[in-house]
């Protein structure tokens, strides 16, 4: 089965429970024989290649939106 995971910052997980869950689940699905693609946000992943324990990593461009803090 081909599975795509979207809506996270990036894996390998550096922060957050949701990223950690996607990290663990995606690697587990690969071990079960599935083809998994995880879409990372640009600038969020420090992994040097497009393969992470059999998980295909794709980086998508994103718009950096930061809400200014009130002064």
End-to-end Cα distance, whole Å, is 51 Å
Contiguous helical run count? 1
Q: Any idea what the radius of gyration is?
A: 14 Å
Largest sheet: 4 strands, mixed
Provide the low-confidence segments as ranges: none
Outline: elongated
Number of DSSP strand runs: 4
Q: pLDDT average, as an integer?
A: 88
Pattern of helices and strands: EHEEE
Strand content: 25-35%
- Helix fraction? 10-25%
**Class from helix and strand fractions:** alpha/beta
Write down the domain tally: 1
Please list the strands of the largest sheet in the order they lie side by side: 1-2-4-3
Provide an overview of this structure.
There is one protein chain. The protein is of the alpha/beta class and 71 residues long. It has one domain (2-60). Helices cover 21% and strands 27% of the residues. The chain contains one helix and four strands. It has a four-stranded mixed β-sheet, covered by helices on one side. A hairpin with a 2-residue loop joins strand 3 (51-52) and strand 4. It is elongated and about 50 Å long. The N and C termini lie far apart (51 Å). The mean pLDDT is 88.
Please write out the topology.
Layout: E1 2-5, H1 17-31, E2 35-41, E3 51-52, E4 55-60
Parallel strand pairs: 1-2, 2-4
Antiparallel strand pairs: 3-4
Provide the descriptors you would attach to this structure in a database record.
21% helix, 71 residues, alpha/beta, 4 strands, single chain
């Amino acid at each position: 089965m081909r599975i795509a995971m979207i809506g996270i910052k990036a894996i390998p997980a550096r922060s957050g429970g949701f990223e950690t869950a996607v990290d663990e689940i995606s690697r587990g699905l690969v071990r079960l024989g599935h083809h998994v693609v995880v879409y990372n946000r640009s600038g969020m992943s420090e992994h040097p290649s497009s393969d992470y324990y059999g998980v295909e990593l794709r980086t998508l461009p994103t718009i950096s939106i930061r809400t200014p803090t009130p002064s």
